[in-house]
Amino acid sequence: MTTYDDRASLTDLTATVERVRSSVEGVIEGKPEVVRLSLTVLLAEGHLLIEDVPGVGKTMLAKALARSIDCSVRRIQFTPDLLPSDITGVSIWDQQRRDFEFKPGAIFAQIVIGDEINRASPKTQSALLESMEERQVTIDGQTYELPSPFMVVATQNPVEMEGTYPLPEAQRDRFMARVSVGYPSVEAELQMLDVHGGASPLEDLQPVAHAHDIVKLIDAVRGVHVAEPVRRYAVELVSATRSHPDLRLGASPRATLHLLRAAKAAAALSGREYALPDDVQALAVAVLAHRLLPTAQAQLNRRSSEQVVQEILQRTPVPSAPQQSGFGGLGRAGYGQPPRRLG
Fold it and tell me: What is the pLDDT of residue 198?
């Protein structure tokens, strides 16, 4: 297993992520962009919502990502009778010790797979709010820290499906990105029949990275530079959702932060130490659309949140590259971090 110093370099990041990507793509055929977005969210310290119709590989994608990393994994099957204590844990009276003993719930893992999250009641879904935002759980006044890295990968069927509950706005806002797997191409489906026909490839999937590796890579992503024009561009995109006539609820400041973190992770995956407006553009729909609520008129006109974000991207001017004289080693188009002056 690869070892690291205090911080992983971009070379280490690229090599490790390539191993994880190849491992996941060995199970999920023909969806490289979906796998890349999943890895982007992982390195950006976010949570991923996979939404699509049944049978397209939502749970398979979540399990393949989890098994490719040597870390603790727990799966929660969300059902209408699932209780909040099943997720967070519960304090039980110990007769011998004459005291309460805390029994951790399924949330105490480094990667938590929430299968069909929108089949549980809103009360049960809300049990994830504290853990997803603050990475801790509070039970009976006692706070318990969650392990690192920590990521929730949740799957859900579209809200039109039978027996589903819409996710609360606060719950959706805590997911960094939403992705749809979609139906495979004919060639990919034929390959799937060959690979999955005899036995599930998950059975032979072995970890190709350690949890310690992921922590180091996350630390490396934090060091990616984001120039002021790129930060302003992200703020302008998010602000535009709050005044758009087709939306009754725009994106929150948390969405801006998630968009910036995802852009930094995408830049690192591309081998860059600086983020570009292209990174923000490529991730805007996945990061913003699921947080937005269209107006009733927009729904009657069949205007989706994704269409609104695409329209905002077209209307918002892309920032020009900053011009900085007297500095060497700037990144592409001047977005790189200039070296520190000595003295």
Answer: 65
Domain positions in the chain: 1-222, 224-318
pLDDT at 42 over 80: yes
Q: Which residue, among 50, 71, 70, 73, has the nearest Cα to 60 in the 3D structure?
A: 50
pLDDT, tens digit (0-9, with 9 covering 90-100), for 146-158: 998 999 999 888 7
Q: Does 224-318 carry CATH code 3.65.10.10?
A: no
The overall longest dimension of the chain from CA atoms, in Å, is 73
Give the span between the Cα atoms of 250 and 108, in whole angstroms: 32
pTM, full prediction: 0.86
CATH superfamily placement of domain 1-222: P-loop containing nucleotide triphosphate hydrolases (3.40.50.300)
> Quick one: pLDDT at residue 324?
52
The DSSP secondary structure of 272-295, one letter per residue, reads: -SB--HHHHHHHHHHHHGGG-EE-
Distance CA 290, CA 151 (A): 18
The DSSP element (H or E) to which 112 belongs, if any, is strand 111-115
Query: 17 near 217, Cβ under 8 Å?
Result: yes
Q: What is the pLDDT of residue 4?
A: 39
- What is the CB neighbour count within 10 angstroms for residue 234? 27
Number of C-beta neighbours around residue 215 at 10 A: 15
**Would you list the DSSP string of 306-341?**
HHHHHHHHHHSPPPPPPP-TT-----GGG-SPPPPP
